[in-house]
User: Fold this.
Amino acid sequence: MKREIAPNQMKIDALPARTSLATGQMALSNIDYDERATMHAWESFLADEPRCAGDPVHPSHVRSLIHDSWYRSATGGINAQGIEAPLSSDRDEIEYLTRANAELLSAARRSFASLGQLLDGTGAMLVLADSDGVLIDAIGDKKTLHDGMDIHLAIGGKWNEDAVGTNGIGTALWTGEPTFVHAAEHFCAGIKSWTCAGAPIRDPLDGKIIGVVDLSGYSPIFRPHNTALVAATARQIEKALAEQQQEQRTRLLEAFISSAPGYRRKDGLVIVDHRGRAIFCNNVPDGEATEMMDGPMEPGRGRWLMNLPSSGSEADLARALPAHLRSCHITPLKLDGDLRGAALVFPSVPVVSTAAVVHREVNKHLQDAVAMIVGESESLHAAIDVACRVARSSSVTSLLVEGETGVGKELFARLVHAGSRRTANDPFIAMNCGAITRDLFGSELFGHVAGAFTGASREGKPGVFELAHGGVLSLDEIGELPLEIQPFLLRVLEERVVNRIGDSRGRPVDVRLVASTNRDLKHEIAAGRFRRDLYYRIGAVSITVPPLRERGEDVLLLVEHFNRQIATAAGEDPLEFSQEALDALLAYHWPGNVRELKNLIGRLHVLARGRDIGLHDLPGEIAAPSATSDDGKTLSAELPGGTLVEAERQAMKNALAAEGGNLSRVARRLGISRPTLYRKLDQYGIRRGFL
Assistant:
């Protein structure tokens, strides 16, 4: 594609950190855009990427928002010479996207219809993307729509930063603010002739980003007010969504009134919509409907409480209730014959003492966290039992969770937090040590004061220990912690005092640490990569989360769990698995563990051509007891019975064989980022052509 170069100098507007969509006004400050200087900065960034990756200083002529996005794109493995976004042209997948985003499409219909007529001949197109950055609608100038196909700026194209780097849609999703990306500011070379301005669309009920509206075209269409236009359009769509939700809320309340003659005014009542979110709360007793299953929340509208099953029977609804809501009576609410919500009625209860309420709340938090861990195997329950004991104990301040990638180690950190909580504000802070560059470890862990080093923030910054004060700090992949940082971590754990970088003043911290790793730390100690004293400090109490292949029929329980969860979120019926398919899933060795299983069920919901899943719908490595590589070698379905390191190495080899050496798909299969995959392949000396 021929790239159209914008004028060498032009004035463009930089968005502030915060933008008010309520008033539609944005505080804009002018900066100079220099095409050649920006291209030179981009080329220099790519040429000297290792140094730039650890250097937060931005070139003066490149906005920090753009430079930060370049860094995310580079470290995420995006090909800077890419010419297009990924595109799904599968008809079934497009139909699934349309159904899943029906409410968003309906809310945007009026705005798109009015603007579509005005864009013809302007060289601009208006697109609507979902929360993953996948385009679900596009209107505007016919020639621009046609040219957009060259870079897959069309329905089915995926435009989040993880897929195509810096761009108006993906960067708006990342920042959560209206954002423009102009010409050379794009990360991929093939889209640098375009300009785009995107604004996130938030669900009026819970504030979550559910999509992006974006104005795109060749670079000459740029105008400072493009961002204001998409921001105003996003606000119109949000207003239409609010109207739709209000209408549904009214109809569900009417449906409840007509179906609940025994309801008493003093009883508590929560109405949830088809997504399981509370849309009406009245007289709800403390400690009943005040929580989500994935973490504590204050009571009120918009809180997610449960997954609604596809069936509208009261028995299925009762089974779908999480543990902390089992005391209520649930009634299905149907609109036009379809299940569109439910009413949760809490019988009035006598007042109990404050001490009893606190004790009940702590136990309930712990029970809810345990309920999130699906499985009945003895090895899993043994790990849960140890974690619960640690959670209840006031003397044990750290826990080491060991297990392969994808087994669900983070759920055990949540469990410890749930059992440790005494107030709703006790923090839970998580940091993945495998996702932090070596130069930034000290700052991320311990914080820094203003001017402590080149690029330090002017106000200083607290580290994760300070942020987790009074709560739980989860350090995932602690085996990736650089050796030179480990003595400082040990000192903080021993002294319970943290010193920010550049500061001599100690700051007391009260933190419970949950460290997790997929490495064999004893092997790392023997290799000189992990300190023995730190290991004994964090591993005074340790648990090993069993791999999925050792959990027997837990596989079937997880299939049912994820199947219902995904179906409910999409407003569809669950898939039906044949006995042959279930037997194959049960026999598979699951190198990616629970994460791989969840991804498979999600993929089947998108790609399966019907609701009945047979053996032919499953990937070849699952449908067959063994797979063969290109040179005819048989890959055993069994993993070695040795160390976790050996198991992880074999899991990577199996995934590489199954995905034909495609590293992006291998990373998705194993549930890890591409940088982590590259690092581990190098660590184990594995090459794509090893088979």
About this structure: The chain has a mean pLDDT of 80.
